[in-house]
Structures are given as C-alpha cells and as structure tokens.
Design brief:
alpha/beta, eight-stranded parallel beta barrel, 13 helices, about 15% strand, globular
C-alpha cells in the first residue's frame, strides 16, 4: 500500500473512536451554532499591485520529512505569519503522520483575523462538522482519495455548512472531475502524494487547464520569490507554502522575504482586528 492509503486507513480508524466520544448529532449542533468564520475565498482574491496571496501553513511534521519544526508555538506562529502578509493560514489536524491536532486549529482561528483552512484527509461528513465547530473557514478535499460521487457529496455539504473548499489535484483527470463537480478553488500540488516527488513544471501545465472564474492555488515546492513569480505567470492566484516557512528560524520574516515586503507589513489587518472586533469596532 502507498503512504496515502495508509494515512486514509488511519484517519478512518481514528474517526470510529472519535464518534464514540462525540456523537455526530452533538457535533453537528456545535457546528451549526459556531460563529461565522472569515471568508476564505475572498481572502484569496486580487491584492494591491498584484501581490501574491499566500496561505501560510502551520506544519509540524510530515511522513516524508519527519519532524519539520520542534518549536511549534501555534499562537505565536499564527500571529507572526498574519503580521507578515499571510492571506490565510492552513493548519494540519492529522495526528499520526503530521503530528497535528484540533487544538492547533482552534488556537490559530482564535488568535488571528485571517481565515484558517483545516488541512487533513477529509473522507466523511463528520470531519466537516468538526472543522466548522473548531473555527475553520475552509477545508481541504483531496481528489486522489475521494471517488467522484463522494467528492461531490462532501463538497456540497461543506458549502451548505458555510465552509469554502480548497480541492487538491495532481492530474488532469482529477482536475476535470472536480471542475465538473463544481470546484471553485483548485489547488495544484507540485508534490505527488504517492511518491513525494516535486515538479513545478507539472503545476504550470495544470494551471493552464483551469478555467477563468476558478481560483488557482499552487501548492508545495515554493522556496524563493522567483518561484512565486514563475507560478503567477503560469496563472496561479494564490500559493500554499508550508515547509519553507516552518524550517525558517523566523517564519514571518521568511514570508515577508518571499513576498518582498517589509517585516510586519500585515500587522493591523492580520492581528489587530480580533481585538477590535471584541470591542465592537469595525476595521
């Protein structure tokens, strides 16, 4: 079996145990009563002067690289990235292989004004209710692990819950399938989840196949400002960057370097709005 198959099997087994602790009916009620989160899709819209829109990922570890960041203070990392130009955050919640968890997503969502994506291997509606209850604005759906009918069902249910969906694809066939099912935000992962090989050229090819009106997100393999420029020219509207940021001593400064911004450029919009909102002030 591939590592992807192993991960999905592990996720399904964990879900069985989770349901025993939290029945779906109770979880659904929590999800439906949760406050409306920030708009993920809007955050990926056009920026002033064509500045790249980055989804900065909080990733502690991965199956291929092992431990990526030992110092994993989620609140400080989330605030630092928001202060330095992140349009949104992505938070890993898969426990066994990526050392993530729901507590990381909750902490990030509670401490920044920008939207937060639940990055996980979503295979059942239960996980959508979890994401909404934890404060996520969006979820990731991976075409490679979902038969087309299941993808369509999960996509529709996510949208009904008020969650945006970032759909990840690796092949032209997957891309056409999810577009036919109504995908509105498509992420093209330069890293093949089965082999972990990275190929930006493949991403460029698939970006050209995404029609106008669909948000194009380039994922993985981004290390330098030149990579952002290259993928923007190929049609990318936004970028998901994780390992490059998490390996940097100061992830916020690394993000500012990639965006060619002075450090702290996003401070007011990214961090101070939660405080202002709690005081009833609209920024």
């Amino acid at each position: 079996m591939s590592i992807l198959t192993d991960i999905v099997a592990s996720v399904r087994a964990d879900l069985e145990m989770t349901r025993r602790r939290m029945p779906e009916s109770v979880l659904r009620e929590h999800a439906c009563n949760a406050p409306a989160p920030p708009d993920f899709a809007a955050a990926l819209g056009p920026a002033p002067a064509g500045r790249p829109r980055v989804i900065a990922e909080l990733k502690r570890a991965s199956p291929s690289k092992g431990l990526i960041r030992r110092d994993f203070g989620v609140v400080s990392l989330a605030r630092e990235l928001a202060e330095n130009g992140a349009a949104a955050l992505s938070v890993l919640t898969e426990v066994r292989y990526f050392r993530g968890g729901p507590e990381f997503l909750r902490a990030a969502a509670a401490n920044v004004a920008i939207p937060v994506l639940r990055k996980d291997f979503i295979v059942e509606p239960y996980q959508l209710f979890e994401a909404r209850a934890w404060g996520a604005s969006a979820v990731l759906l991976i075409a490679a692990i979902l038969p087309p009918p299941e993808y369509r069902r999960l996509h529709e249910q996510a949208r009904e819950l008020g969650l945006d969906v970032l759909t990840e694809v690796h092949t032209l066939r997957e891309l056409r399938t999810v577009l036919d099912a109504g995908a509105e935000i498509v992420g093209i992962n330069s890293r093949d989840l089965r082999t972990f090989e990275v190929d930006l050229a493949r991403t460029e090819e698939l970006l050209a196949e995404v029609p106008n009106g669909v948000v194009r997100v380039a994922e993985s393999g981004i290390h330098d400002p030149e990579d952002l420029t290259r993928l923007q020219r190929a049609g990318a509207d936004a970028f998901l960057i994780g390992e490059t940021l998490m390996r940097a001593p100061r992830p916020g400064r690394e993000l500012a370097r990639l965006l060619r911004l002075p450090a702290g450029a996003g401070r007011v919009a990214g961090v101070l709005r939660p405080l202002a909102s709690s005081l009833g002030v609209l920024l």
